[in-house]
Amino acid sequence: MKEVFFMRHGLTRENELEIMIGTTNPSLSDRGKAELHAIKDYVVKPDVIFSSDSRRAFETAEILFPNMNVTYIPQLRERDWGVLEGKTLDFTRKSGLLRVEDEEILKQNGIETSSSLRVRANHIMQLISQTQAQKILMISHGGFLNFIMRTMLPENFKREALANANYHKIIFNSDEKIIDVKMNQSWLNKSLS
Q1: Do 123 and 144 contact (CB within 8 A), yes or no?
Q2: At what angle do helices 30-39 and 55-64 cross, to 10 degrees?
Q3: What is the pLDDT of residues 126-181, one digit of tens each?
Q4: Which of 39, 77, 134, 177 has the least CB density, counted as fewest CB within 10 Å?
Q5: Which of 147, 171, 174 is nearest to 159 (CA)?
Q6: β strands within the chain, DSSP E
Q7: Across the strands, what pairs with 8?
């Protein structure tokens, strides 16, 4: 059995202001750092940690796991939001670009395509499969983690957006089949981690 925790990085100032940040590389906000320090004692003690190499994910890993080895990989970075980068969530929803599937339109707007995200998601799934550990933690970003969940879970499965510093937990059996899923969990609920 293998437990994989897909954690979203801590809160940034841009998250607080509901501004789209993909390739933008801000630090955690003071509130985000304080929230991570508050949950530190409740976070799972993983065998292996993989993290996005973006500043906000890196800082999340440093605060929660100061004495553990963390492998930083670019495949866990957030989606490149192109023309939506730096815009408010309200603006991006009204633009309609978040629902666009046409890869040419996405490319014209500088937004990372689903096929590019799929290549990265497949890399992450291979990494999970090849990692000999029972508890794996992946620190990444809301948009990319939502894409991974859409890729891994059945279409009829209820998906939930992932709050900052929360996690999705997926348990795989020895045949690498999903046997349990917990969505958008808080570390403060110790019984689920």
Answers
A1: no
A2: 30
A3: 999 999 999 999 999 999 999 999 888 887 777 778 999 999 999 999 999 999 99
A4: 177
A5: 147
A6: 2-8, 48-51, 71-72, 135-140, 167-172, 178-185
A7: 140
pTM above 0.90, yes or no: yes
**How many CB atoms are located within 10 Å of the residue 119 CB?**
11
Structure tokens at 46: 């993983």
The separation between the first and the last C-alpha atoms of the chain, rounded to the nearest angstrom, is 15
CA proximity to 44, closest of 139, 126, 159, 132: 139
> Do 169 and 4 form a contact (C-beta atoms < 8 A)?
yes
CB 76 within 8 A of CB 140: yes
Q: Which residues of 82-118 are buried (b: 16+ CB within 10 A; e: fewer)?
A: bebbebeeeebeeeebeeeeeeeebeeeebbbbeebe
Domains of the chain: 2-175 (3.40.50.1240)
